[in-house]
Specification:
The structure holds two protein chains of two kinds. Chain A is α/β, with parallel strands linked by helices. Chain A is built from 18 helices and ten strands. A six-stranded mixed beta sheet of chain A has the order 2-1-3-4-8-7, with helices on both faces. The N terminus and C terminus of chain B are likely disordered. Classes of the chains: A alpha/beta, B alpha/beta.
């Protein structure tokens, strides 16, 4: 080496300008340390992992939920899916079905007994998803409540017991009809007034108006083909996955509810779609309904409850996710931002000394900032990816457990979360999650990196000590 | 020999400070760290800045290295006022003109010895291959060629400081600034590092400026700058110390101590303890 030459060269009182390294070189330098750093700063990365895992689990849960909510009615598993969603909604207390009850004025059998409407209300009150209330019997007041647009007043379902006198008013019947057409659920209990011997033609015509499928029949011809079960899995329509799940008894209404009970039947029911709504009819017998074991049987049994739930299935379908998920998603994003910002702040501040050293070695401020942005994006990507997978697995495990249905006949379990897993949607959400993680990591690193880069090297090295 | 070197380079002041003052503001209290220091360092010299803790020697050291800005006064490196430099020129200066060595080594923990040495070369724009060849050459000079792939935590303190010296030499700087280079090392290792710095000074003709209170440094230095209470207390040449060593008798440390006492007596602050006790 020519030492003399170099002395001359050093003697030149000239200062050059530091070159700006190409981005590729910055990535190369950043990459050297990243693998090691990822392991070393596991705590930093774990902040990102946890934040994105939370985000991803909420998103995956939401995606599975909405995939199940979109299962069409003609799907073979429809009844099972609705049953599972109902269970979820009831468990989460996220759906309340308002049941308006219209009953006979009062008990005729004696002052000591409550009216059937009150009995029905008290019975339904025991179920947490129902919010029952007795409707006024006066036609105008009744129509006012039924046609109300206030969500707190408007009932979702209407329970009419034993064809009360107010049904003689055609305006009331028309109001009920309109209510069902718009998606309401109507449950009718009782039939004795329709008996061929019955003379109350007003009520008979009301019945004909509400259940047009039976119009003109005058008498009931219930059979296996006309008796339909509710949507509950145990009473599911026809067959489920080719396995018969319910046994039908061929009955005539004349035999009455008591006869069915004796035969060990779980219920008797006539359903009919009308407009967007559904009409359920329980041809329960009993001249004195309030005292009748038949009413008791309908109310206490699963049948009415299941019917009302079934009628409100759209509410269950929508109810599981709606508000709760919005809240969770915003919360998870907030957790995500705070977690990642904190992680990046930590990771930069703990390396102040390194930054000072690099500046002493000739690093430009822009290089330091760029180095940290590259590192934080790598760290964000790796952390988010791990977090996204972790969150996905957690959410999937949870969904696997909650969204399963056991076939009553064979005991075979159907994993609905697997069956309806929205693969592409979840993959897309994972991608979005990773992108969110990377962007947040980079944004969160900008400020501390910029601050660190602008420090005098001495300050930076002192700050750490 | 030292005299010969001095005559050869005496005219070239590679570092020059002019009435440098530094005041630190801590809350509402203003603490003066440097009260006006004028100093010239000549090319090829080996200078030690000595002084007790809190005397301002580290502050002066940082000013010279362009690591911190003086409150008032001027610092010239190669006759260029560094206060006038923009960020790019300052980075260029730190990259090529000055090599830094720290008490705590300050190697980048995630990089291997070789990567640490080549980092300043990368900043200077060398290609990866050029940097690797030159880096290996430098590691060989400090005797660590066989440990090039080791990470700092796999090296002893002395080895880390050798890597740091190789890194400081990366872009053939004209000045090496060493802040307490032996402060974290044991006696024998410290001596090795001093010897290595001396070799660099002799063979590569690099100007070496150290801030230290390690008296072992004195015997290697051409000049010793004593800082006391933010002022220049005394500048001694090595020849003067040798004379004192002669008078006090025999061993180097005793002689040094004698010279420290002399410096202390000449300073304004009589009550302050002996600077050597600080180490």
């Amino acid at each position: 080496m020519a030492g003399q030459e170099r002395i001359v060269e050093r003697g030149k009182p000239k200062i050059g300008r530091q070159i700006v390294l190409p981005v590729g070189k910055s990535i190369e330098i950043a990459w050297k340390s990243i693998r090691i750093r990822l392991w070393r700063s596991l705590i930093t990365t774990s902040g990102i992992i946890l934040a994105i895992a939370f985000l991803s689990s909420v998103w995956t849960t939401g995606a599975i939920n909405s995939a199940l909510q979109k299962v069409p009615e003609d799907d073979p598993n429809y009844a099972a899916v609705i049953g599972v969603l109902q269970k979820q909604a009831i468990a989460q207390d996220s759906v309340v079905i308002r049941v308006g009850i219209l009953g006979t004025e009062a008990s005729t059998s004696g002052p000591s007994l409550a009216s059937p409407a009150v009995l029905a209300r008290d019975s339904l009150q025991e179920r947490q998803e129902f919010s029952p209330f007795v409707l006024p019997t006066r036609p105008n007041a009744f129509r006012q409540v039924l046609e109300s647009q206030e969500p707190d007043e408007k009932p979702d379902a209407l329970l009419v017991i034993s064809f009360p006198d107010s049904l003689a008013d055609p305006q009331v019947v028309a109001a009920i009809g309109a209510f069902v057409e718009k998606g309401g659920t109507l449950a009718l209990i009782g039939y004795e007034q329709l008996w061929p011997e019955a003379t109350d033609t007003a009520v008979a015509s009301a019945f004909d108006a509400l259940l047009p499928g039976t119009a003109g029949a005058g008498r009931l011809q219930a059979s296996a083909s006309t008796l339909k079960p509710s949507g509950h899995a145990a009473l599911a329509d026809v067959k489920w996955q080719d396995h018969p799940v319910a046994t039908y008894l061929k009955v005539t209404p004349r035999e009455g509810a008591e006869a069915l009970a004796r035969a060990g039947a779980e219920g008797i029911l006539w359903t009919e779609r009308r407009g967007q709504g559904t009409v359920f009819w329980y041809p329960a017998a009993g001249a004195q309904l309030s005292a009748s074991p038949a009413l008791d049987w309908v109310l206490k049994g699963r049948l009415l409850v299941n019917s009302l739930r079934w009628g409100a299935r759209e509410k269950f379908r929508a109810g599981v996710s709606a508000k709760r998920n919005l809240w969770l998603v915003s919360l998870s994003l907030l957790v995500c931002i705070v977690g990642i910002t904190n992680a990046m702040l930590m990771s930069v501040t703990e390396r102040f000394r390194e930054i000072g050293t690099m500046k002493c070695l000739g690093a430009l401020d822009s290089f330091i900032v760029r180095l940290f942005l590259i590192e934080s994006s790598f760290q964000g990507a790796a952390g988010s990816l791990v977090g996204a997978v972790l969150g996905l697995l957690l959410a999937f495990g949870r969904a696997l457990f909650f969204y399963r249905a056991t076939e009553p006949g064979t005991g075979h379990t159907y994993w609905l979360a697997v069956h309806y897993f929205p693969v592409w949607r979840v993959l897309l959400l994972m991608l979005v999650g990773v992108v969110v993680g990377v962007i947040l990591s980079v944004i969160a690193a900008i400020y501390p990196a910029y601050r660190a880069a602008r420090m005098e090297p001495v300050e930076a090295m002192r700050a750490e000590a | 020999m030292a005299a010969a070197k001095d005559t050869g380079t005496a005219q070239q002041a590679v570092v020059r400070t002019k009435d440098v003052k530094k005041v630190y503001t801590m809350g509402k209290v203003k603490v003066p760290a440097l009260k006006g220091i004028t100093l010239e360092v000549y090319s090829g010299e080996y200078i030690s800045i000595m002084g007790p803790s809190g005397s301002g020697k580290s502050t002066l050291f940082n000013m010279i290295g362009g690591l911190d800005k003086p409150t008032s006064g001027l610092v010239y490196i190669d006759e260029v006022d560094i206060a006038q430099l923009d960020a790019f020129e300052l980075a260029w200066l730190r990259c090529r003109k000055i090599g830094y060595i720290f008490q705590t080594f300050n190697l980048i923990p995630v990089m291997s010895a070789l990567e640490n040495v080549t980092l300043p070369m990368t900043f200077a724009g060398l290609t990866t291959d050029e940097a690797r060849d030159k880096g290996m050459e430098l590691l060989e000079k400090v005797g660590l060629a066989d440990r090039y792939s080791h990470k700092p935590f796999e090296l002893s303190g002395g080895q880390q400081q050798r890597v740091a010296i190789a890194r400081a030499m990366a872009n053939s700087p004209s000045i090496i600034l060493a802040d307490e280079p032996t402060g974290n090392l044991d006696l024998a290792t410290g001596k090795e590092i001093i010897t290595l710095l001396g070799e660099m000074n002799q063979n590569e003709h690099v100007t070496i400026i150290t801030a230290t209170h390690d008296i072992k440094m004195l015997s290697a230095s051409d000049r010793i700058v004593w800082i006391r209470d933010g002022r220049l207390a005394k500048i001694e040449r090595r020849e003067d110390i040798h004379i004192q060593v002669g008078t006090v008798g025999g061993d180097a440390e005793g002689g040094v101590e004698a010279s420290l006492r002399g410096a202390g007596d000449k300073g304004e602050d009589e009550q302050e303890g002996e600077p050597t006790e600080e180490g």
